[in-house]
Amino acid sequence: MAEEKNRSWIIDLLLLLALLYLFFVSVELIGEGFKFLGKGFAKSLFRVTSNPLVGLVIGILSTSIVQSSSTTTSTVVGMVAGGVLNIRHAIPIIMGANIGTTITNTIVSLAHITRREEFRKAFAGATMHDFFNLLSVSVLLPLEVAFHPLEKGAIILTEGFKGIGGMKAISPLKAIVKPAVEFLMEIFRSLHLARGLTFALVEVLALTALILSLKFMVDILKGIFLQKIEGFFDSYIFRNTAIALFWGFFITSIVQSSSMTTSLLVPLIAGGIVTLEAAFPFTLGANIGTTFTAIMASFATHNPAAITVAFTHLLFNISGTAIFLPLKKLPIGMAKLLAEVAYRHRWVALVYVLVVFFGIPLAIIFL
Predict the structure, then answer these.
(1) Which of 64, 173, 197, 330 lies 20 to 30 Å from 189, alpha-carbon distance?
(2) Does 226 have pLDDT greater than 70?
(3) Which residue segment(s) compose the domain that 62 sits in?
(4) For residue 336, how many other CB atoms are within 10 A of its CB?
């Protein structure tokens, strides 16, 4: 029995390493693929995303569709590394990804819609994450557009990281990933297809590899880690604000999915096991923990601009936590108010999801 368990751990570890390598290759491939479109495409994309509001809703919409901020932020990191996006235009997309990722929690809460009391608690538990991110963006996006504090702070972090030799430590990772990327790019070049078609094929391959590698990494880590701690949530994780914040950060850093960890809260809140007030700091910790994926992806690129964007994501979530953790009554109160309306008129919940995550972003993009 012990031998079987050890064998299972070894298999899981090898799979994780293979998936991690695939993830790094996919991020690098995203940036390489855009080179087929030339500088003209990059300039046109700069013009579109130069409007911070458009960048924000692109982040919301794309993340709502794939239901993974890790996918969106890693893609953005790859695009910055490839010179397709600059830091300033990437930041609103990253902020939008933070909003879009909360759709998963809200969808999970809809599973309780036939049991009204449970649904009221579950919907409030899910949407307090929405309101936290919406409030954070409403405060920090205007400040960023006007004064660029997150960008400046992230540049300082990147320079400091380089100063302590961190960039040199990343070089082996770049060297390991580069042969696979060059091999794949050589295959695509040898096909002698139209530039647009080659770009499309590269991006489809890269995004498919990115999504699948993240999905299976989360699945494996969930089996190893999350299932063992789910029963201990109430006893150990929510003892006080600091502990809940730490565990939200730690668990999400490991499983690389804030959607996964925060979605686990929804049934616990619905069942009255965890209160909104106790779950809120855990959610904020998960928001910070999810930035680990983009940081890891940026290291694979060995590109200072890409690393700066990843650090911007980290600083954005830390700043939002610093502002709204002391003001937690505001997002929690807004979530309770919306949940009360949805409790009386359950169709409101469906309209809320369609309008916030799809309707408004699409309307802004088309306008």
Answers:
(1) 173
(2) no
(3) 2-366
(4) 19
